[in-house]
Design goal:
Pfam families: Fer4_20, Pyr_redox_2. Keywords: 4Fe-4S, Iron, Iron-sulfur, Metal-binding, Oxidoreductase. This is NAD(P)-dependent oxidoreductase. With about 500 residues, the protein is α/β, with parallel strands linked by helices. The strands form four sheets. It has a five-stranded parallel sheet, with helices on both faces. A five-stranded parallel sheet has the order 6-14-7-8-9. Helix 15 links the parallel strand 7 and strand 8.
């Protein structure tokens, strides 16, 4: 009788891919986890309990068929495992690297709840698709039939790229417009290479291009261009993401050395491509030899602190106004950062910025010229829950101090740009948060033929949700095209 290939969680312990030593990995921007060997991937997949109600799948925004591709991997049927994975996820190798599995699939694994340690879902997902690329199973899109309808997509981030993939597979003509010189959005310029090596993104861009997607790069859409795009295409998808940085109106906030996270990360990623980056080369967006303080507790803040370490910062500290338990970023990322030498100052919030100018009125929000020398910090405690149910931070009087710094990075999250104003489209309805109003699942806006997906609808969110939105929107557009074709007959 053949051995049962699954349910081995009682015999085999959870085992992540080997992590490179912190002292070694802090010297470069390569990914920190090694690849599974085939035997190890099969072994870890075999720990899946194949439960009747797979909470891993339920809590995945894409509802990936995780138990199915885990079983296929355990049985050594990797090409089938890839095909099942790709059926619901446009970019499984990207999600396997950057999804917060501890909060989604792995965090809801049934055997984790029973104390056996979750299945290493993300690492297996990454292994399956990396193997598919290596073996040549990933091929350019070849639609069975070309259609005459065309869709213009504004934004080459994960939501726009996912929509393009689905539409091209159906034979729709697709053009993507993006302000940057490379496609990928935050995948290319926002997320550091140690979490997502850039060749992983570039090969997907190339696959889409070889499959017939047209990229119009260095295209900063304005009112005239938006009008032209609408006129040229049968439907338009807005997938711009949210790039406007939240700011602090504090004393000294405009001093030299106080920078935005998106500028800092983009400069670092451009250097990894070999681009000329004057603001990096001049030292402005370079942490080398500096005392760095990052303000914020999300994943962007984690990217900034870990990038600073790799750039050779003298010291790196992260200020967050709540405690470790209540921070929004991945706990796995915090652990990685601590291993690499980052110091976290919990329950700490900025009150202002000290500069090299003699200014005594710290309550005056007027920003002096000069260079930052430190962050004026006020210590906090957690009080009663706020409207979201989280304990609200309260200031501890008399506990202020100055944290010395040569470079301060504000990683406070992102807000949507005012697209109705920028594009002179007052009829493009937005919410009170400035995000575009769009129908649930379809992404349809109140403008005829215009859809919106991803962060520009949700606010700053996860890559996996942008992929879900892009796929759902593409399906809705195809349904509309199908209805239109029937009506025309």
């Amino acid at each position: 009788m053949a051995e049962q290939p699954m349910l081995k969680f009682t015999k085999i312990e959870r085992d992540m891919p080997e992590k490179r030593d912190a002292e070694v990995r802090r010297e470069d921007f390569n990914e920190i986890y090694a690849e599974y060997a085939a035997a190890k991937a099969a072994e870890q997949s075999s720990r899946c309990s194949q439960c009747g109600v797979p909470y891993c799948q339920t809590h995945c925004p894409l509802h990936n068929n995780i138990p199915d591709w885990l079983r296929l991997t355990a049985e050594g049927r990797l090409q089938e495992a890839y095909e099942v994975s790709q059926a619901t996820n446009t970019f499984p190798e990207i999600c396997g690297r950057i999804c917060p599995q501890d909060r989604l699939c792995e965090g809801n694994c049934v055997i984790e709840q029973s104390g056996h340690g979750t299945v290493t879902i993300g690492s297996v997902e990454k292994y399956i698709t990396d193997t598919a690329w290596e073996k040549g199973w990933v091929q350019p899109i070849k639609p069975a039939v070309e259609r005459t309808e065309s869709v213009g997509i504004i934004g080459a981030g994960p939501g726009g790229l996912a929509a393009a993939d689905v539409l091209r597979r159906a034979g729709v003509q697709v053009t993507i417009y993006d302000r940057y010189d490379r496609a990928g959005g935050l995948l290319t310029y926002g997320i550091p290479g140690f979490k997502l090596e850039k060749d992983v993104v570039m090969r997907r861009n190339e696959q889409l291009e070889l499959g017939g997607v047209t990229f119009e790069l260095n295209c900063d859409v304005d009112a005239d261009i938006f009008t032209s795009i609408r006129a040229e295409h049968d439907a338009v998808i807005i997938a711009t993401g949210v790039y406007k940085s939240r700011d602090l109106s504090l004393h000294g906030s405009q001093a030299q050395g106080v920078e935005k996270a998106i500028d800092f990360l983009t400069a670092s990623n451009r250097k990894s491509f070999g681009d000329e980056v004057p603001d990096f080369d001049s030292g402005r967006l370079n942490a080398s030899g500096k005392r760095v303080v990052v303000i914020g507790g999300g994943d962007t803040a984690m990217d900034c602190v870990r990038t600073s370490i790799r750039q050779g910062a003298k010291s790196v500290k992260c200020l967050y106004r709540r405690d470790r338990t209540n921070m929004p970023g991945s706990q796995r990322e915090v652990q990685n950062a601590e291993e690499e030498g980052v110091v976290f100052e919990w329950l700490s919030a900025p009150k202002g910025f000290a500069t090299d100018l003699a200014v005594t009125d710290a309550d005056n929000p007027a920003d002096p010229a000069g260079r930052v020398t430190g962050v004026m910090v006020q210590k906090m405690r957690l009080g009663a829950p706020d409207a979201t149910g989280r304990q609200a931070p309260e200031v501890i009087e008399g506990a202020d101090y100055v944290e010395e710094a040569d470079l301060v990075i504000k990683a406070l999250g992102f807000e949507p740009e005012a697209l109705p104003t920028l594009w002179d489209q007052p009829e493009l309805a937005v919410t009170r948060w400035g995000t575009i109003k769009a129908a649930f699942t379809s992404g349809k806006t109140e403008m005829d033929g215009v859809y919106a997906v991803g962060d520009i609808v949700r606010g700053a969110s996860l890559v996996v949700w942008a992929i879900r939105d892009g796929r759902d929107c593409a399906d809705a557009i195809l349904a509309e095209f199908g209805t239109a074709a029937i009506a025309a007959e």
